[in-house]
Design brief:
Helix content: 25-40%
Radius of gyration: 17 Å
Order of helices and strands: EEHEHEHH
Strand content: 5-15%
Number of strands: 4
Structural class: alpha+beta
Strand order of the largest sheet: 1-2
Largest sheet: 2 strands, antiparallel
Shape: globular
Length: about 140
């Protein structure tokens, strides 16, 4: 759901308002010279065919590159399957028609910290307990 101008919205109307706001935000920040990386999660059977459309629309809005991340099936999406390598590669190739694809990530986590490609993950220096998730490492 989305609340826009005090109005509670769901469904296609909510999606339309949210997408318009996202594209507007991309346009505004890109005009300021900021590199904009689009992150999208590939969910087989849900958005497989729309990844290229996302790349095209966000490129037109001024995005610089796109990162297509495979779904990690868990919580409310635990019944879905993770995309296979062929599906991920096909989505990346389709998106690459419109935006360069950031291919460094395997799976991301919100607490990842480091420099992509450096091989160093600083999480061990910051957290008291080991983290058993994937990193940008």
């Amino acid at each position: 759901h989305v609340i826009s101008n005090g109005q509670f919205m769901t469904g296609e109307d909510a999606a339309r308002v949210l997408i318009e706001a996202q594209l507007s935000g991309i346009q505004k920040i890109a005009k300021l010279g900021v590199v904009v990386k689009i992150n999208t999660v590939l969910i087989p059977g849900v958005n497989t065919k729309s990844v290229a459309e996302v790349a095209k629309a966000t490129a037109e809005a001024g995005a610089s590159l796109i990162n297509i991340i495979p779904l990690i099936p868990q919580h409310e999406m635990a019944f879905l399957r993770q995309p296979n390598c062929e599906e991920l590669d096909a989505a990346r190739m389709a998106a690459e028609e419109f935006l360069p694809v950031f291919r460094h990530c395997l799976h991301c986590r919100a607490d990842a910290c480091g420099i992509p490609g450096s091989g160093k993950d600083f999480a061990a220096d910051l957290y008291d307990q080991p983290l058993e998730t994937f990193s940008h490492g």
